[in-house]
């Protein structure tokens, strides 16, 4: 019998054989950092990645030499922290992941990182706009709610902005949400999927539990779960006690997002929640928003609506939009004032 399930795996197999012929260069900017190193390692394990380019202001070649000994097929190259090194790391790249910048210490919000990370992301975005204008750009550096608009402004100023190719990586929120809900319900997290919309910090992170496998979660349990998803990053910052924020789980999430784009470019239908230039709340002046996005060879294929939410979630969305709007405008203003 030819069930829907068999048909799906046939499509997957076909996509896989296409991908075997794919040539995909992936670049990590900030590759020697807490996220950059495990992220680069996970990308080295991904068969769809054929060339891995590792760049950092310090330590790129060392990390590359180390990872290059892993016996998978791809080539790995580390680049020196020079304009030529950055150019060579970027040229021909299909995906550029940017985890460059400083992480949080206890007591800090992601917005507290703005002063340092805004200029780092702006400068790397300038280089990406010049040397990899058609790549998918995946922004990990915080505050994502502002660093994505910063990147968009830089690409616009260079005349190469393609809203379909710019992504704020919010995958860790989705990863956390499915893990945390499985702890509440005693289930396998692999079978849990929670849509998380909005942005990537505190109250801008809006989990839609009513759309999950467990719309019954309510009251104090719901409040605690939503709070844990919104502020899960703080658990890591606190436990690391000054040594940084999430790096290993973030590397996992970043590698998943990169893989999703590579699979989509090979023709698979892949849906991820990600922070993109979005029409959903443009009428309220919000230019970027994370929601479910269908990925394709062109990057963003279709931005799916938020869908049906309950009154509680509507309240969360309203609180989100207020903060998000400020974060976006702050990023855009930064580039106008500091081009
Ligand atoms: P880290 O300090 O361990 O590593 C950052 C790396 O960036 C360092 O190796 C540094 O040399 C490099 N770097 C700094 N300026 C650079 C430049 N101009 N060009 C190239 N490389 C440069 O920090 P970590 O823990 O890896 O975090 C990186 C960023 O990711 C932080 O902004 C953090 O807040 C963010 N983050 C984002 C998450 C998300 O869900 N999107 C989750 C966790 C962290």
UniProtKB/TrEMBL annotation:
Catalyzed chemical reaction(s): (S)-malate + NAD(+) = oxaloacetate + NADH + H(+)
One Gene Ontology CC term in the entry: mitochondrion
E.C. number: 1.1.1.37
InterPro entries documented for this protein: L-lactate/malate_DH (IPR001557), Lactate/malate_DH_C (IPR022383), Lactate/malate_DH_N (IPR001236), Lactate_DH/Glyco_Ohase_4_C (IPR015955), Malate_DH_AS (IPR001252), Malate_DH_type1 (IPR010097), NAD(P)-bd_dom_sf (IPR036291)
Domain Lactate/malate dehydrogenase N-terminal: 25-168
SUPFAM superfamilies in alphabetical order: LDH C-terminal domain-like, NAD(P)-binding Rossmann-fold domains
Protein name, UniProt field: Malate dehydrogenase
Species, as recorded: Pyronema omphalodes (strain CBS 100304) (Pyronema confluens)
Phylogenetic classification of the source organism: Eukaryota, Fungi, Dikarya, Ascomycota, Pezizomycotina
